[in-house]
## 1
Amino acid sequence: MIIDIHTHIGVIKGGFNMPESMLVESMRKYEIDYSLVSNIEAAYFKPLESNIKMIELVKRYPKMLGGMLFCTPEFNAADAERLYTENKEHIKGIKIHPDISGTAINDEIFFSFYEMAAKYDLPILFHTKASPFSRIEFVTEVAERFPAVNFILGHMDIDTEDKKEAVAAIEEYGNIFGDTAWVKWDSIKNAGDKCLDKIMFGTDAPIAGEDTYADEKFYSEYYKRDCEAKEKILYKNAAKLFKI
C-alpha cells in the first residue's frame, strides 16, 4: 500500500500545470492507493472557490483522495472552518505554503488556522525552506505555542541535502513530523527509529508531470527498500496520523 500525503491540483498560467485528471491518472498508473490533495490555485486567487473545487474532486474519488484545505492570509478563517465542518469526511488536514503567501509560519495571521487545527485535530503540512518565511525554526516555535497541533515539515527543508535540522526537530518535538517530497532516501535512511516513525511519503505529484512518481533520483528508491522503515514511510505513519 502507498499513501501520498503531499499532492496538488491547480493550473496557474506561467506557473503550474496540474489538472485534476493528471493527478488521478498518475495515481492509477503508479498504483498509489490514496493521496491527500490541496489546490494550489488557492494560493494565488479566490481561496474559498479554489478549496471548494478541491472538495468537489475529493467527493468524486472518496476512496482515492482526501482533502487538505489550502490556507492563506487571504482565506477567511470562518470560511475555512465552515468548509471543514460541512465536509468532515472528506477533509483530512491543512496545507500552508508560507513562501507563496509571503508570510512567515510564525506570523499571527496564521494563528486562527492553528487554533482550528487544534480544535478539530487536523495535521498541518507546511512547505519548508531556508527562506524568510518557511524556516524550520519557525515551525518549532509554533509547535511549542500550539502543542495540540501536529505540524509536518514538507520537504524537510527543500534547500538542504542532509536534512539534519529537520531530523533533529522531528526527534525533539512530539508534534513535528516530516514528508519525503524531494527528499532522497539516502538523506534519511540513517535516521533513528524515533524519526522514521514520523516521516511520511509525499511527492508534490503531479508537479513534475504524470510521471513524477517515477523519479529515479528521489521516489523510486523508496519503493525498492526491503525494510520495516519502508512500510512505515509509505503508508503506516500516514494512516496513523491522518486516521486513514
Note: Residues 3-242 form a domain with the TIM Barrel fold (CATH 3.20.20.140).
## 2
Amino acid sequence: MADSTSHHDPHGQSVASWTSVIVLMVAAAVMSMAVVWGNTGIFIAGAVLALVGVIAGKVLAMAGFGLQKPGRGQADSGIG
C-alpha cells in the first residue's frame, strides 16, 4: 500500500506526449506494413506521419499542453 508521501513521477502524462506517442505508433504500424508489402510510397507516407507526430508533440508542449517545468506554475504558462 502506498503512503501519501510517496514520490509520483508524472513523466509522459500530458496531452502533448500522448498525442505524439499515438501518432508515432500509427506511423510505425504504417511503415511496418509498407515493408511487408514492399511499397515505398506507403513507407514514405508513414515516415511523414512520424514527422508530423514529433512536430505535433512539440507544438502542443509549447502551447502549454506538456508537463510544467519545476519552479514554473500554471499562471506562468499562459493557461488560465
Note: The radius of gyration is 18 Å.
## 3
Amino acid sequence: MEIKIPKEIRRHKETIFFGLSTRQFVCSMLAVGTAVGVYFAAKSWLGKESASWLCLLAAAPVAIGGFFNYNDLTFEQFVWAWFKSQILFARPRVFRADNIYCQAIVREGLKDD
C-alpha cells in the first residue's frame, strides 16, 4: 500500500469512495439524483431522447460544483468572487502609472527655485 503525500500539506485531499473527496462524491450523487428526477418528470411530455438531453443540462452544474477548482477556490467561492467583481462593484478600472523618476525631477526643480 502506498500513500501519496504532497509536498505542500495544505493540498492534501482525503478520499472516501472511488478516489473521490467527500465534496465530489456528494455532488456526484446529487447530480445523479437531479438527472433521474428530471428524466422521470420530463419523459412524459418531451419524449425519451429530449428528456435525456435535459437531464444532462440539469445535472451538469451540480456535477461541476464538486469538481471545479480555480486558484484554490471552490465553485461557490468562484461564483461569489465573479459576482462581486462584475456586478456589485463593477466600475471602469483605470490604470494610472506613476513615474517616480519624473516626480523626483519636478520636486527637485521646485526646491531649486
Note: The radius of gyration is 26 Å.
## 4
Amino acid sequence: MDMGSLGSILPLVLLVVVFYFLLIRPQRKRQQEAVKMQNSLTPGTRVMTTTGLFATVVTVDNEDVILEVAPGIETRWVKAAIGRVVTPGDAPVEDEPVADEPVADVADEVKTEDVKDETKNGDSSTKQS
C-alpha cells in the first residue's frame, strides 16, 4: 500500500473508532445496567415503568413482574418495561401552591374579560364560551 491509499482510509478508521467509543460502547453499558437492575428486582421494591407508571413489585416470574399500582390492583408487566427503581427521595411530589403566592381563579378572569369586551363593543348580550 502506498501512502495515498493509507491516507484516505485513515479518516474512515478514525471515524469508526470515535463512533464506537462515543455511541456504541456507552449504549451497550446502559443496556447491561438495565438488564442487571431488572434481574435484581425483589418483592416490595418501588419501581417506575418506561411509560411512567409508579408501582410496587409483588412477585417476580421468569420474564414477568406483577406490580401493585394501588392497594388491591395488580398488573402483569414484562421485566423489560421496568425503567428504574425508585428510592424514597425520588418519589414524585404533588404540586402544592406556595402560601406567599395568591392563587388566581380562572373563572373570575373570564368573567372580567367578558365584561371588558361587552363595554368595548357596546353589546349587552352574554357571550358563550
Note: The radius of gyration is 29 Å.
